[in-house]
Known about the structure:
Number of helices: 6
Shape: globular
Amino acid sequence: MNSIVGTYECKVDAKGRLLLPAPLKKQLSAGLQDGFVLKRSVFQPCLELYPMSEWNLMMQKINKLNRFVKKNNDFIRRFTAGVKIIEVDDLGRILIAKDLAVFANISKDVVLSSAVNIVEIWDKDMYEKAIDDSVIDFADLAEDVMGNVNDDDNGLS
């Protein structure tokens, strides 16, 4: 799958349905037939929407873990806690289950943010706070994470 691009502000209705923005839906069109997996994020108070193909790749990695190692078993349980299979309805909406909405503090205004090959779903206020908190440290973070990466001949990281 190609990288997903974009950040979109949306609204969730009272029943927990979220209309996917047309540009995002177009990018995800290859996976509409297969469906998606919606889960809690490991590091942030948001949700992650995986196209089924990406979820299957992740599960291939996780299936290599030895289940007789307690840490591995604990990780698998926590990583898959609350996981839901999601389908896009005929109107282009997904349903966010109540337990996942509570985890991510999602009530009405949300932000859908691309994260390479998945989409993060945030409460709008929490997204803005997460972005604002990281702005100050972003230059150092970028240098730490990407500073030594230069595997292309064009001089760009």
